[in-house]
Fold this sequence. Notes:
The complex is a heterodimer of chains A (335) and B (282).
Chain A: H1 2-19, H2 21-54, E1 57-58, E2 66-67, H3 71-78, H4 80-111, H5 117-125, H6 132-143, H7 148-155, H8 173-198, H9 202-210, H10 215-243, H11 247-252, H12 262-272, H13 276-304, H14 309-334
Antiparallel strand pairs in A: 1-2
Chain B: H1 2-5, H2 8-39, H3 43-48, H4 62-70, H5 73-104, H6 110-122, H7 125-138, H8 145-154, H9 158-168, H10 172-180, H11 185-196, H12 198-214, H13 217-222, H14 231-236, H15 246-281
Amino acid sequence: MGKSAGTAVGxxxxxxKFKSRKVQQMLVIVTFLFAxxxxxxxxxxxxxxxxxxxxxxxxxxxxxxKFVGLANYVDxxxxxxxxxxxxxxxYYMGGAVVQxxxxxxxxxxxxxxxxxxxxxxxxxxxxxxxxxxxxxxxFKFFYARGFVLDSLLQMFGMSLEDIPYWLQDQSINNFALAxxxxxxxxxxxxxxxxxxxxxxxxxxxxxxxxxxxNNWHRFIYIILPSIKSIVVLNLILSISxxxxxxxxxxxITNGTMGTGTYFVIMNRLAHENQKVGLACAMAIVLLVIIxxxxxxxxxxxxxxFDNGTDDESKAAVRKRKREERRKNAxxxxxx
Amino acid sequence: MKxxxxxxxxxLFEILKYASLICATLCALIPVCVCILTAFKTNExxxxxxxxxxxxxxxxxxxxVIAFQKANMLRGFFNTGMVLVVVLTASVFMGSMLAYVLxxxxxxxxxxxxxxxxxxxLLPGIAMQVTIYQIMYSLGLVNRLVGYMIVxxxxxxxxxxxxxxxxxxxxxxxxxxxxxxxxxxxxVFFKILFPLLKPAIITSLLLKGVSVYNEYYASxxxxxxxxxxxxxxxxxxxxxxxxxxxxYICAGVIITIIPILILFLIFQRQxxxxxxxxxxxx
Lengths: 335, 282
């Protein structure tokens, strides 16, 4: 009995404290932040700091470390295989540009009324959801000599001798691999662009339609301004994205025959050759590139798009309206 | 009648529109469809016919059975399932709690916490695994499903973004009136706000779920023993002894795709919504 009374008194003061908003806030903040912050520190920032540290050492996973200063960084730029990987990523960047262009084109098509829209959308988006390893197998099969792509081309009358070895021919295999990225991400980009286009105020389309704007006007004056920021964002993201391409080349060629992307090479150095220090230096270089891209993107948005995009497109519509009216007046005069 | 009114240029536009869309759809579907065809072919058929030929029977499930057994996919599905349940539950709660605190309270260090998460999103995932592996090793978490789950939880930025965005559109007056009624902050979160988060929860479950289901790199690194294989590492075993038996490989690929396909067909709208939300965020 005495015990329970004691806790009751204790509870009262505790409850009083608990009622005070300040303490309660503190309690909520601490409990809710604890787990995510702990995970963030242990599995993101601790490894990050170790990565920075290791990049100055010549070391394996187990065994002695040797401080080598900047030698690993010098190596990153001097090793032919890594330099080659940087070149390979240019193919993927080119792929990313093609992919953004296609995505933009199809998203624009979708903005207009399309019968069976959901079927087209689903078919084009679905590759994005397939796991990277499966994408790798699908295209390993697709490009294999005498298999899917070759059979398709033969169906259209090409003979097998004229068809290159898609994965072995070094002048073409990186195009083939970059194309898998295009296949995988175009639909996803399209859905993103479509989302941005749809967020445009519907009145704008109606006003434009009333003024007799044709589809081309709609594209130039309404659609394009509404999505230019996200297009630029994706262009910039594609730089780090193309350096990070991993699973398809890993499965399809395992980085042989000059198709090793940055991550494939890094993976090989880190886990097969156990050059941990060098791999860490590669990671830091990649991080620096990503940070530069991000800063570039921030600057770009700050200086180029300082006017709200909506206002701008409205202004564009107004301008076009004036022109339209003038033209109509001329027509009237001619009749 | 309607057609007559149309100008020739708009007819041309219509043709161009549908032709390009159909072409794109074919490009997207052909690589997968050929896999489906091949998955139904017997060994003899596979060796003798062109890959574009239809299989003799669409009821020949032998390859699926073989793929399922050879790659130990049952185990893979079981492990991936467990990982999904734990990681998704944890990420929904952690993501929404974190977003709640960051969105609703001003406290010293709030900016720092927010920036720490933002910066973490920039760090290249696969590259980090070199040193994460060391930490996992020293914590004794390598080759344990729990360890893999923790790694996937730790790198969870997507759901935090989604929840942060959602909280911005939930009026603070909701919280305030509940506090007036004597609700605690915990109560506000769990009783009032959490149920309202449903759309954001669905979106984050789908996006995170797909990325966990498809995750290969960490799974390969941390779960090396046979009975710990997840679905993507199980699929990867086909690079070995069956490297050229594409009828088995295709069957394996189709098996891994089917669950995602079903989910996608059910939740199409939410998936697109999640993508668009990411777009606006960008």
